[in-house]
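Posting this for the archive.
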Amino acid sequence: MQTNDRPVTQAASETRGLLDRATFMLSIAASSLEDVSLDDTNKPGFKRYIKRVPLGVVLVVAPWK
């Protein structure tokens, strides 16, 4: 039996790959959303930074054969 054009024997490696990617993305989430400080020597008294704010869930539907 096949699912998504792959033999069932390869399904475990696909699940493991998804788990590895999800675990990695969770591990970098906090550092990826940290503010980025910008050095600005032209304007004393001002602090410039980039604030990263998550907007929500993103769905990507990728085509395959």
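The beta strands are 2-3, 6-7, 36-38, 48-50. The mean pLDDT is 80.
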